[in-house]
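hi support,

uploading two proteins for the ticket. first:
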Amino acid sequence: MKVLTRSEEILLLAIWHLGENAYGVTIREKVKEMADMSIAFGALYVQLDILVKKGYAKKFLGEPTPERGGKRKKYYTLTENGKLSLQTARDLNSSIWEGIPDVAFKQTEQ
C-alpha cells in the first residue's frame, strides 16, 4: 500500500473526525483546528478531488438548501481503502518513533 503524504493524512483524519458533517467548510475548519494549517478553498477542493481519484474518499452531493441559494454541499466520506491507508500511516508513525522517549525533546535548563 502506498504511504500517505502528511497532507493526505490530515485531510482524511479531518473527514473521519467530522463523520456525516464532512464538507468543504467544516473540513477546512477541522484542519485548522487539528494541524494549525490554513488551506485556501480552491486548494482544498483540488486535494479532496485527488483523494477521491486515489480511492481514499468518496464525494456525494447533499440536498439543496435555501441558505446556499439552492446549491448543494459536496460531502466526503472515507472509503475502506482510505481507512486502511490511515491505519497503515498510524502503524508506520508508531514504528518509526518507537524507542524515542518524550523526554528527548524536552528542553533542559541551562
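and the second one:
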Amino acid sequence: MAIDLTKADRTLVNEIIELGGEDILKCFQCGTCVADCPAATAEMPLRIKKLIHMIHLGLRDELLEEDSVWMCVTCTACEERCPRGVKPFEVCLAIRRWQAKEDPTYIPPALGEIFKTGHTQNVANVPELRKSLGLEEVPPTVAKFPELLKKFQEMLKCSKIVQEYGFMFGVG
C-alpha cells in the first residue's frame, strides 16, 4: 500500500508534543525501544517505533485506529534503553491522550482487562516466566493484593465510562 505524503497531516507531531511527547523529534528509528519491550511480543504487539514513524508521517487516521498503544505495561524499559532520550513511554501516554481527545467515544480494547486485572495484560498468569527471570511469581501490584484490586474496581465504577458502558466491564 502506497502512502500519499502530500495528504499527510503535518500538525500531528506538534499535537503529540503538546500532549507529552516532547522528545519525539529526537527519534531516529533505531528500534532499541522495541528490543526489550514485553508488550512487543503480545498478541497485539506494541511497536512504539512504528507509532512514532506514523506520527512523523502525519498518518492521523491510522494512528487514531491504532489500539496497540494500549498494550504498554508501563515498565519503562524503553526509556531506560533509548540512546536518544526520546522517552517512548511518555510518547505512548501522549498518543493515548491524543486518541481520547480526537475521539471522545473511543474505548480502548485493553480497558476491560484493566478493569478486570488492573493491568493491560494479565501479568499474574505468567508465574513461571516471572520466576525464571528472578522476579516474584506474582508482581507486587493489584495482582498480588486482591483487596486493592477491589478498591481499584470500585473507584473505576464511579467513572463516566464504566457507568455508561458497564456491560463492557461485566458491571450491571
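thanks. also noticed: The mean pLDDT is 87.
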